[in-house]
Amino acid sequence: MAGAIGAHRKLKTVETIAAQSPPQSPPQSAPPSHNNIKSTKPFFKNPKTPFAIRLFFADAIFVFLVICSTSYTKIDWDAYMSQVSGFLKGERDYRNLEGDTGPLVYPAGFLYVYSAIQFYTEGLVYKAQVLFVILYIINLAIILFIYVKTDVVPRWALCLLSLSKRVHSIFVLRLFNDGVAITVLHAALLLLMYQRWNLGLIVFSVAVSIKADMLLYAPPLLLLLLKAMNISGVLLALAGAALVQILLGLPFLVSYPVAYISRAFNLGRVFVHFWSVNFKFIPEPVFISKGFAIFLLAAHLTLLASFAHYRWFKHEGGLLKFLHSRYVSLRLRSGLLFSPSSKKFGKKSSSSSKVLTKEYIVTTMFVGNFIGIICARSLHYQFYSWYFFSLPHMLWITNYPTFLRLILFVGVEYCWNIYPSNNFSSALLLFLHLIILWGVWSAPPQNPYAEDKSSSEKEK
C-alpha cells in the first residue's frame, strides 16, 4: 500500500514538472520574423495603407463598370431561386428542394442568405449584381486589411489581389454562393487574427452553413485552437460552432434529419469529369473510382500531418510532443482541481499562455486550406475563389525569387481561365500548385508566438 502511494506521488511529481516547465525557446538559427514586428504598426500609420486604400477604390469602380458593360452569365442563379422558393413555400425535405441544375446540396445558411437576396431583389438579376458588387467590395476590404496587418507581401504586390478575371466573374457575373461563403470566412479569419477565438468560430460556422466546403479550413483552425487555448476553451468554442449548425438547420433536423445531413454535408460527392479544372488529365474511369478518392484522402491527411508536425508545431518539438504535453497538462489539471494548490497552478498556467502572431494564424489557415485544394478530387471554376486571395501571401512566404512568384501567380490564373479545361491546363495547374506547396514547405519556419510584453518589460 505504501509503495503504491509512493509511486503515485512520484508520477504526480513528474507530471507537475513536465506541465509547469516553461516552453522551449525557439532555436537561435530561427529568430522571430521581422514581419511580426512590422505588423504591430497601427493600420493607418502603416506605409502600405494609402496604397491599399487607393487600390480598394480603383477595384470598386472597376467592378461597377463590369456589371454595366458585361452581361450576366446564366448558370446557377435560377436554380438558387427555385430552391429558395421551395423553402419559402414550406418544403423542409431536402430531397424535394431542386433547381434546373439538380438537387440542393448546400446547408441551411445558404437558404437563409438567398431568401434574403430574393426578397430584396425580387429575383431580378441586375439588383442581385449590385448586391454582389457590394459583397465583393466588403471582401476586398477585409482581405486588404489582413494583408496590411500581416505585412508579408510588398506594397506593389497588393495589386495582385485585384487582377483575377475569373474571381471578378465569380462574384458579379455569376452570383455564386462561393463568394458569400468566402467573404464570411475571411471575416472569421480577421477575428482569429485578433484572438477572438469563440466569435471567430461562430462566424466560421456561418460560412460552413453557406457552403460546407469551407470545412477545408477546419483542420488548421483546430490546430490553432489547441495552441491558443486550453482544452476547456477549445471545447467551448467547438460547442458554439456546433450550436450554430444546429440552430440554422433546426427546421430540417426536426423534420427530415437524414435527408438534410446527407444532402447538405455530402463531402464525398462524385463530380462530373468534364467540369474538373484540376484533374481533367486523369481518365474518367479512374477519376470517378473509389480508389482515386481514397488516394486523395490519404494524401490530404498525410500532408496535413506532415505540415503540422514539421512546420506548424516545430517550435514545440513536433505535433506529437505538443499533444503529449497537452495530455499531461490536462491530467495534472484534473488531479489538482480540488487540491489546495489549484488556484496557484491556475495562475501559473494562465500566465504561461502565449498569443499567436497574426502572420502565423493567417499562414496556417491559408496553407491548410491550400492542401485541401490540391487534394480535392474536382475543382469547379467557382472554387477558385476559395484560395485565390491566399496566393500572394503563400508565394511571398517562400524563398522563391520575385520573378518566379509572378510566373506561378500568372500560371495559376491562366489555368483557371481556360474553358473548358483540358489535359494540359489541368496537369499544369496541379504542377504549379505543387511548386507553390514545396516553396511553402521549404521556407524558414515562422515564430508562432508574439513577444511577451510583460517579460520584455521586466528585462528592461
TrEMBL record:
Listed name of the protein: dolichyl-P-Man:Man5GlcNAc2-PP-dolichol alpha-1,3-mannosyltransferase
- Its top-level enzyme class, in one word, is transferase
Going by the entry's taxonomy, the superkingdom of the source organism is recorded as: Eukaryota
* Reaction equation(s) it catalyzes: an alpha-D-Man-(1->2)-alpha-D-Man-(1->2)-alpha-D-Man-(1->3)-[alpha-D-Man-(1->6)]-beta-D-Man-(1->4)-beta-D-GlcNAc-(1->4)-alpha-D-GlcNAc-diphospho-di-trans,poly-cis-dolichol + a di-trans,poly-cis-dolichyl beta-D-mannosyl phosphate = an alpha-D-Man-(1->2)-alpha-D-Man-(1->2)-alpha-D-Man-(1->3)-[alpha-D-Man-(1->3)-alpha-D-Man-(1->6)]-beta-D-Man-(1->4)-beta-D-GlcNAc-(1->4)-alpha-D-GlcNAc-diphospho-di-trans,poly-cis-dolichol + a di-trans,poly-cis-dolichyl phosphate + H(+)
Q: Which GO terms describe its cellular component?
A: endoplasmic reticulum membrane
* Entry keyword set: Endoplasmic reticulum, Glycosyltransferase, Membrane, Transferase, Transmembrane, Transmembrane helix
InterPro entries hit by this protein: Glycosyltransferase_ALG3
- Native source species: Lupinus albus (White lupine)
Q: In which pathway does it act?
A: Protein modification; protein glycosylation
The subcellular localization recorded is: Endoplasmic reticulum membrane
